[in-house]
Amino acid sequence: MKPAKFHPIAESEMIGSAAFYEERRPFLGDDFLDSIDEALAKIRRLPEMGKPEKLHARSWKVSRFPFRIFYRIQPDRIWIVAVAHLSRRPDYWLNRLG
Questions:
Q1: How far apart are alpha carbons 83 and 59 in whole angstroms?
Q2: Strand, helix or coil at 38?
Q3: How many domains does the chain contain in total?
Q4: Residues 41, 63: contact at Cβ < 8 Å?
Q5: Is residue 18 over pLDDT 90?
């Protein structure tokens, strides 16, 4: 299995979203991060199973939360480029693939 590495902005998105959920209800931020971890484990095991996206990227829906993880499979890692809320403008993360 390849390691998953985050683009710095993708990591900030994830942390900010967890903080948002935690402010709404205690432990909901932890539940969000657990769902992210579950999705990442699946991505690492079966990276080709993600939904094909633009510019050779893929995405995986996070369970329980309205988020998708956008990533690119690279020879030595899974490069996570976005942890995106589904209501954000589409494709805002594409410039991170360069």
A1: 10
A2: helix
A3: 1
A4: no
A5: yes
Contact 82, 10 (CB under 8 A): yes
Which structural domain range is residue 30 located in?
4-86
Q: Is the pLDDT of residue 17 over 90?
A: yes
How confident is the model over 47-78, as pLDDT tens digits?
999 999 999 999 999 999 999 999 999 999 99
Greatest alpha-carbon pair distance for the chain in Å reads 40
pLDDT at 88 exceeding the cut of 90 = no
CATH code for the domain of 17: 3.30.2310.20
| Pair of tokens at residue 19 | 């903080």
Residue 55 DSSP class: G
* CA atoms of 50 and 20, how far apart (whole Å): 26
